[in-house]
Amino acid sequence: MKKLILLIIPLLFLTGCIRIPRIGNSNVVVTSYGAYQIENLVKREDHSTSSKVFYVLKKDKYASRPDNISVEMGTNYYSKNDYMTFVRAIQNQLYQQVGKNAKIYGSALSTKSGDVIYKFIITKDNDSTVATQYYVVGDYKYVLVYETNFSGNKDIDDAAYTIAYTFEWKN
Q1: For position 52, which CATH number holds?
Q2: H helices of 18-108, where?
Q3: Are the C-beta atoms of residues 128 and 152 closer than 8 Å to each other?
Q4: What pLDDT, on a 0 to 100 scale, did the predictor assign at position 156?
Q5: How far apart are CA 97 and CA 74, in angstroms?
Q6: 73-130, pLDDT tens digit by residue?
Q7: How many structural domains are present in the chain?
Q8: What is the pLDDT of residue 99?
């Protein structure tokens, strides 16, 4: 009996020392295709659809033209391993859409779980609006996190990055 008590006491002590991080359910959005974390955002019901969800900063919930983020999943013709062909297709499409008076900056990142993210920042001459697109690459699919920043507020930039970085595909 003494041996059992001597074993239990250190286990109780060690159990109290282990910190398990928890993400509150209010900050995690679960969809049919995956999950992601939102910070300081609320869903904009009046603009969202079943396939595309719009978010704004909590402070801008009722603004008429707020900075915003949309999240949607799409399909493509490219396997997860053929992501370079996918990124070239996105680049070509963006150049056709934005025209000559725009600049596109691209970079590659990864999600917390290791999936590839392509980030494109689009600016236009004589317009302070910045559009940032994060493509989380999946197998013949992608998730697009599209941020439109009218005000230059860094909080919306951080929120869009958080969504892309924390995104995990549903198995």
Answers
A1: 3.40.1000.10
A2: 83-98
A3: yes
A4: 97
A5: 18
A6: 999 999 999 988 999 999 999 989 988 889 999 999 999 999 999 999 999 988 999 9
A7: 1
A8: 82
Residue 45 belongs to what domain range?
25-169
Sign of CA dihedral 168, 121, 52, 73: negative
Using CA atoms in the order 35, 157, 79, 102, what is the torsion angle rounded to 10 degrees?
150
Q: How far apart are CA 163 and CA 170, in angstroms?
A: 15
Q: Is 40 left (phi over 0), alpha (psi -120 to 50) or beta?
A: left
Tell me how far apart the alpha carbons of residues 17 and 171 are, in angstroms, rounded to a whole number. Answer: 32
Total-model pTM: 0.83
Enclosing H/E stretch for 158: helix 154-166
At residue 29 the predicted structure's pLDDT band, cuts being 50, 70 and 90, is: very high
Is the residue at 11 inside a domain? no
Instruction: Classify residue 8: in a domain, yes or no.
Output: no
Position 20 in a domain = no
Rounded distance between C-alpha atoms, residue 73 and residue 75, angstroms: 7
Q: Name the more confident of 125 and 156.
A: 156
HSE at residue 143, side-chain half, CA atoms within 13 A, is: 27
